Structure to design on (371 residues):
């Protein structure tokens, strides 16, 4: 990370700066399986739960679903006028939800060659986030979809029927994310992160957050809640105690966050250098993060694999890198070049394939070796 990166606790106490570890890039090219092109910037890229299909949405509103094995186009749908912002598969893989610039939440029910669409108003002129809850209930009807639109946060059932509308937020909702294993929903606005109960609709907790959050991220065990922020910082709360930690001094705003499979390591962008924080035990306070240096331009996307310790990263100049074992003194093990800024990274459920999308509308599938 260029310049100064200070680590502070909730009271602003500065802890020693990171050290620099350099590496000489000598990676191999990732083998491409297939590629496809949409007509505009790719805004969303989501694997189906079974790993047999992948959905892509673009800034012109198009929604396409491909066979993951060979790239065959299965469905081409008129998603949202003026742009598609978000996609999320229902946990059973039989439906897909989307939100976009037309203010609609759409439910796409897939049955063979047939597609049935149910649309409902999100509450404002755009719907920025949609996300299905995790399958934490054996009843297949239980999964709930959360949508955010302006100051409105809504909950929908598995058929697209409104379950509840939460109290209107004081400011525009910036991000939404489900707790990984409890029926709780986190929402971020400027100045606060709020935790809502999905079953009772009540506000369970409120964290003061005097910044504009761009990205919310729970650790997979729910022990940490993290935000990447407009003011070039990363903020952590230990959810059990409310203890706060703050990393500041990034090169630019931070919207790239990803946890590894063990819920121990947090990767963050905000620079051309990736910082990887060790959050084990007492957390990252007083520790020096690892630095992964290879990208020449700012990192624009990060994604840890579901299993193991493999990190994928993409940058503004279209470069893609895969880091196995995330060893800072080593270069990435595999690289590729996209047509434009890397906008989306998505690992297949078994981590054998990596889907990558860019600002020029390209969707490419790569096979990752060594996993």
């Amino acid at each position: 990370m260029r310049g100064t990166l200070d680590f502070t606790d909730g009271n602003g106490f500065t802890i020693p700066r990171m050290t620099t570890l350099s590496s000489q890039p000598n990676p191999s090219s990732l083998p491409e399986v297939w590629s496809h092109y949409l007509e505009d910037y790719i805004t969303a890229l989501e694997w189906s739960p079974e790993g047999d299909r992948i959905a892509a949405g673009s800034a012109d509103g198009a929604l396409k679903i491909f066979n993951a094995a060979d790239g065959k186009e299965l469905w081409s749908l008129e998603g949202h006028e003026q742009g598609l912002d978000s996609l999320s598969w229902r946990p059973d893989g039989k439906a897909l939800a989307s939100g976009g610039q037309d203010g609609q939440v759409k439910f796409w029910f897939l049955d063979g060659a047939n597609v049935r669409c149910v649309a409902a108003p999100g509450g404002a002129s755009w719907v920025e986030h949609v996300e299905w809850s995790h399958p934490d209930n054996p009843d297949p009807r239980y999964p709930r979809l959360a949508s955010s639109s302006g100051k409105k946060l809504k909950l929908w059932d598995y058929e697209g029927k409104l379950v509840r509308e939460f109290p209107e937020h004081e400011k525009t909702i910036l991000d939404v994310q489900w707790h990984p294993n409890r029926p709780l929903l986190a929402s971020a606005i400027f100045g606060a992160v709020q935790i809502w109960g999905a079953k009772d609709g009540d506000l369970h907790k409120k964290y003061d957050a005097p910044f504009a959050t761009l990205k919310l991220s729970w650790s997979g065990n729910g022990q940490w809640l993290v935000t990447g922020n407009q003011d070039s910082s990363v903020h952590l709360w230990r959810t059990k105690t409310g203890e706060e930690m703050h990393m500041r001094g990034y090169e630019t705003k931070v919207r790239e966050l990803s946890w590894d499979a063990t819920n121990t390591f947090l990767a963050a962008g905000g620079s051309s250098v990736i910082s990887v924080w060790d959050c084990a035990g007492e957390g990252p306070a007083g520790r020096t993060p690892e630095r992964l240096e290879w990208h020449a331009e700012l990192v624009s996307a990060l994604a840890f694999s579901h299993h193991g310790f493999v990190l994928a990263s993409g940058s503004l100049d279209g470069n893609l890198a895969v880091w196995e074992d995330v060893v800072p003194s080593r270069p990435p093990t595999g690289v590729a070049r996209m047509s434009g800024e890397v906008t989306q990274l998505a690992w297949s459920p078994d981590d054998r394939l990596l889907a990558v999308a860019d600002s020029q509308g390209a969707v490419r599938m790569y096979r990752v070796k060594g996993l």
Q: What stands out?
A: Residues 60 and 83 are 5 Å apart (CA to CA).
